[in-house]
Design the sequence.
């Protein structure tokens, strides 16, 4: 996965970018999605799910209150949102470490900053920046 920075001009463009991006991903990968509220992290996951072969990507919604959703795409996609996380135990209790170490799935973690050292060291980071109402900068590192 190469480093790149792109600017999208609409939510649909972010979805299209994520769909293409998904084509390059190897199972086992963990993606940390960082950036402020409304910067496009969940929108990106929707495109990712579609790119990974999920039949109904409209089911992709923020797992803010439940911590995690599982999408049964061709490559399973685990979607975490740590925004409301109170303690690392909450993540440990749902089996976070087993999920992110699943070699057959792709994991993405919104607000990964809050998961601290539970994030595997080889995770990749994508940072989302709000430029204006409809433009987002997406930086893959
Ligand atoms: N270029 C763009 N890319 C992505 N989303 C965009 C873009 N322009 C506008 N939007 C809008 O910004 C919002 C992004 O919301 P989204 O839920 O994806 O953000 P988020 O980063 O997951 O926020 P949260 O931290 O609350 O989970 C949506 O309402 C979307 O329609
Ligand atoms: Mg979100």
Sequence:
């Amino acid at each position: 996965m190469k480093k790149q920075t792109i600017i999208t001009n609409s939510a649909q463009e972010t979805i299209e970018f994520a769909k293409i991006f998904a084509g390059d991903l190897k199972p086992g990968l963990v993606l940390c999605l960082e950036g402020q509220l409304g910067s496009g992290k969940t929108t990106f996951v929707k495109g990712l799910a579609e790119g990974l072969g999920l039949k109904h990507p409209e089911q992709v919604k923020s797992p803010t209150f439940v911590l995690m959703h599982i999408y049964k795409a061709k490559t399973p996609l685990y979607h975490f949102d740590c925004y409301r996380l109170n303690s690392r135990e909450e993540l440990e209790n749902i089996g976070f470490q087993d999920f992110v170490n699943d070699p057959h799935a792709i994991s993405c973690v919104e607000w990964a900053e809050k998961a601290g050292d539970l994030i595997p060291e080889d995770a990749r980071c994508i940072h989302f920046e709000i430029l204006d109402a409809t433009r987002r900068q997406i930086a893959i590192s």
Observations:
- The domain at 4-140 is CATH 3.40.50.300 (Rossmann fold).
- DSSP finds four helices and seven strands in the chain.
- The mean pLDDT is 96.
